[in-house]
Queue: 2 jobs
Job 1
Amino acid sequence: MIDTLLSGQLLFSALVTGSLYALVALGLNLVYGTMRMLNVAHGDLVMLGAYGAFWAFSLAGVSPLLAAPLVAAAGAAVGIGLYRGLFRGMLAKVTPSTAGKLEGNSLLLFFGLSILMQNIVALAFTPNNRAYAYLGEVYRIGNVSMTANRLLVLCVAGGVCVAVALFLSRHVAGLAMRAVIERREAASIVGVDVDRVQRLSFAVGFGTAALAGVLMSMLEQFSPFSGFPFTIAGFIVIILGGLGNVTGGLLAALLLGVIETYGVALTSANLRSVLLYGSFVVALLVFPNGLLARRLVTR
Amino acid sequence: MKLMATRRRSVVASIAAAALAWGSGLAYAQADKPLRIGFSMARTGMLANATPSQLNTYELWREQVNARGGMDVGGTKRKVEFVIYDDQSKPEQAVRIYEKLITDDKVDLLLAPWGTPFHIAIAPVLEKYKFPVVGNTAASVALRQVKPGYIWFTTSAIPDRIGTELTAMLKQQNVKSVAVLSNVLPFTKEIKNFVEPELKKAGIDIKVSTEYPPDIKDMTAALTQVKQANVDAVLALAYPGDSVLYAKQAKELGLNNPFQFVAIGPSDAFFPKAVGAASADGVVTIAHWSPRPEWKGSQAFYDSYVKKFGEDPDYLNSALAWMSLEILETAVAKNGLDKEKIRATIASDTFETINGKVKFEGVQNVVTPTAFVQYQKGKLQIVWPASIATGKFEPKKGW
């Protein structure tokens, strides 16, 4: 048992799971952080991304690796379109007194979008399970065996998450985004173009969700109804990490991966949900503003 | 102005089209009324991804029946029309739908919904209205508790029989030790509960026995344990979703146990596509059908399914659905639409199907043997029992 825990095989699994959760939660967090909108359709965007990669691969023979940037770009375009067509008007009318109402309305709106997407995809593509085999060869490094596609998921998801985190801390547009996340009113007073930041959040949020879908499709099978568990995982991560706190979210996602893999190894797979939601509830009780909240406040 | 003209023209056109459609419908109704056959199917919800292989089979059947002039109803041929409702993956919804199909839509015949809980749920409705239905995609020992009368279960893949037959097969392959991984959903849990005592009775050592939830995303921990146990056989009592996860991670960890049994999933065409043909080869799974010259129509069914849908039928669910249609067709040809006579025929006759002879005693098919199939060079072959085998078991050589 001890050698299983120390073998590195579990660590690899925890990192793969964690990095995918991190990528899913990232987009959810940006959209919530900048606009206080709860996108419960986020997992369905992941599902759409998976279909994008699947069709590109099985109809046109396009490698998912090549399809990934295209699908992500398409996701971003959808995000911008939705923002322009639906949410910009809604957001423009928001005053501090109606902000709470927006949160509720966005929840309902995205819930409706989620149901629409699932059923349109089910009608258009049938509810069949879809999956394809890509990069299935296994590599061994030391005593850890890694399937190429899982290694790829770890690298791409991890890389994109780090890139976005760097963008938020270094690039001027990223700093503007963080300003809107932390002090929305103040940001607009000092001249941050809030509209542009919001559009960018939608683009990055939807784009990363679609990218997560492409990556997920290499690992597991999916159907029009596969998105919801990702929405749930995303919400656990961003609440653990602190709503709107992107770095906290990344760490929380890795923590979730670790809990899921090592917790299951130490106890029983049947306790997976108990462990996930249990740690979530404990974290909420002990750190109601997220795991990293205090550090950010004191800075 | 131009826009107006176009619009006016299209309005005229659509009125004409509607009138034509109405007229032709009227003529059709006078000539002979189509036979309306109703059923519910999970088109949305958690189970929707499991139902296409059954629905496809129904559609294929309707197309073929109508192409040969219609279904034989006691000597007269009538075209078949389906009345389909989505039960949203909820058995209680299926109950309402079957009641509506019988009392409101007044359909002529009924087909079965997908899955065990749905079959069990609608049984009392069928009993109440004395409406016979030949079941197909349901398998559980709980089915035997359903009151015999208006529903019959076609499959022989009942968990207690799987327990004894699988143990017998393992024994024959000289398996000394096994690892059992089981999804906690009802069907696989039931198999586990029946197979483990049988294994113990046969003196086969169960070195690993573990359960997991249906939403599992990673099996590394359990499979590392299986690898270390170094057993002769792995019984992965999986559902379609986790069957793929199991195969992919077994490959990653290099599980080289020569007997790999994966309960549900591999009989469906998506499995080899999802894990790769080489990984699928050698996997043993539950099904009791395969195209076989002795079973009339089995090759024709396979060929026409592949032609229409571009993939293999599900060797379990599609075959079961087709068998149920064949049985209904025979009973209706003999009795017309008299429900009582149809019931009596189904309950007592022996039927020829693509899976050989079928005869019901109570609710159960007592002829078809419980069987297992194995992927060999991309095709599923029946490898157990010997009486209907189309191939010999081959040890799995890696993934």
Note: The domain at 35-156+294-365 of chain B is CATH 3.40.50.2300 (Rossmann fold).
Job 2
Amino acid sequence: MSIHILFYALFLSQIILISYYYPTQIIKRIESVIKSFPPENYPKLYPESIEKVIAAKVRYQLLNQIIIVIGLILMGVYAFMSKDYDGDQKFAEGLPLMFGMVQFIPFMMIEISGFRQFKLMRKANKSTSRTAGLTPRKLFDYVSPISVITAIILIFGYVLFDLYIHNFNFTGDIIIKIITLSLVHALFIALAIGQLSGKRLDPHQAVKDRSQQAGFSLQSMVAVSMLVSLFFIANSAVDFFQLGYLEILINSIYFQVIAFCGIGGMLRTIRLDNTNFDVYKAEKVTA
Amino acid sequence: MPQDRCTITTHGTTGAPINMEITIDIEDPMPLFTQLVEQIKSAIVNSKIKPGDSLPSIRQLANDLELNSKTVAKAYKLLERDLVIQSKGYRGTFVHPEALVNSKMDMNAEVLAQLNQAISACKNAGVTDSEIRIAFSNAMNSKNN
């Protein structure tokens, strides 16, 4: 019973954190940008009309509200279905993971919309002058070598741990987890190369802001890498020690920590008062 | 002129090194690689970057300036030839220890002075203009050069 109560608390926290708290912070940020940097003075910031930006914001808000309702319904369904199960039985352990993936859809939509905005910005950019920094962007300027080494050790640590508890037999489950881990890290490496030496998406972005963004992205990728490995270790451990009933709690905690490091980290690191918006001002026309 | 466009900014409160910025104009009649060479030399002369400082990779600079990698590679090659920068393999590219002196040296003026001296010597010896032109062309096309 106590596991169920703990799950209600964690699942409610997952709903509030990912579908209410962070979306509210993002909406506040969008509103603050529109208010402080209006299209009249900062036309380069709005490759599309302000109405489209507001419509996208409303869609984002609505989608999150729908997800909150779905989350509360799922909690009700869980309460109804779980009464036949004891606290030490494995039940609906995939629920926080599946719901967590749904919760991240609005954030992905915002990311995709951001890429579209940058594409339009690049298309509309008629400036013939281009600026770049003469400071190299190197991985260890942004992330400590200890963090990277820890992330690598955790990857191999997980593989060894899972193989150890399965008597060094490559089971289907281990192979799937190793493939998943490899794909996630291949994506991270590609993204890291893009941040360090890739083309800049925002043609107007100040050199300092580009560097700050690269720093945040690299730090969060290293953090997520460690979390994924730890999550896999915890997942295998609960199976091995026959504590499967804890899996539902671990899954919910995992998604909340990912959101805290990813979305929360972005909100904490990339601050509006520290961003150079002057680059989006209209260019002065000289007679 | 591109040299006048050098600005200097810092990384705010992060404590990261001072970040020197360069700006190129794709419609400037001066070739893009020359703009790059001049701006990097100017940054060295104005002590905005110092001997031993590391420079961005060709790929990073080309992508940041939305230029072809070959243009940046050409600029770096010229700077390396003039001993303004030095490549240290996988460790990257650095400002040469003698960069300050070498950045002040005008290679075009140096070449012009040497050629003037050679042409004067030829003319004093009675060589005609067309003979000098043919000889210069042969020398440039010679496998030894």
Note: Strands of chain A lie at 129-133.
